[in-house]
Specification:
By secondary structure, this protein is mainly alpha-helical. The chain has 3 domains: 65 residues; 43 residues; 37 residues. It has 6 helices and no strands. Helix 2 crosses helix 3. The longest helix has 45 residues. It starts with 12 loop residues before the first helix and ends with a helix.
Length: 191
């Protein structure tokens, strides 16, 4: 209402152009410009050919309400400013100023920052320790491989054999247990 943004300020458009012109502009400014209206074409050029969308779909009543609002805007704003309460005579006017952060807010902010720095330090230390532990375990693994004079392929084959034996053993144990459970269930129900 007060500033030019993507279009002109609207606070005095009805006063300057009239209700009929404002209604035509809101309904369809392209039609208004097509009639050769000087002010409509001037506004169009001033805003680099950016046309306001047509609002014919709102209907005459809604557009009339918008135009009435625009017509009364300045008067209503002045009336609202005049109706602001004034301090009673002899009483000082209270003015609230923001003085920045209070001491408590500064202390809390410092505590939060210190806490965050502590958490970041702990995370950094943990990652560093984990990285060193990984490097040591990897170095130990390589040392043992070289000590046993095995290459990585032999070590992988030995590990695969170990896993296969372990899986076979567990399958046998679980199969035997399952077989025993079935036999006991059959004996219980089919005596």
């Amino acid at each position: 209402m007060e500033k030019k943004v993507v279009g002109p300020a609207l606070k005095s458009v009805v006063k300057q152009q009239g209700k009929e012109w404002t209604t035509a502009w809101i309904k369809n400014n392209n039609k208004l410009r097509a009639t050769g209206d000087k002010h409509a074409n001037q506004v169009f050029k001033e805003y680099n050919g950016m046309a306001m969308p047509a609002y014919e779909h709102l209907g005459d009543e809604s557009i009339g309400n918008i135009v009435e609002y625009l017509a009364q805007y300045s008067a209503k704003k002045a009336e609202a400013a005049a109706n602001q309460p004034t301090p009673a005579a002899g009483q000082p006017q209270v003015i609230v100023q923001s003085g920045g952060l209070s001491v408590l807010e500064i202390v809390l902010l410092c505590l939060i920052i210190a806490l965050l720095l502590g958490v970041i330090g702990i995370l950094y230390w943990s990652l560093k320790e984990m990285s060193q532990a990984y490097r040591k375990s990897r170095a130990t693994e390589l040392y043992l491989i070289k000590k046993d004079r095995k290459d990585l392929k032999e070590l992988n084959e030995e590990f695969d054999d170990f896993i296969k034996q372990e899986v076979d053993h567990r399958v046998k144990v679980n199969t035997l247990r399952f077989k025993q459970e079935i036999e006991s269930t059959l004996k219980r129900y089919f005596k």
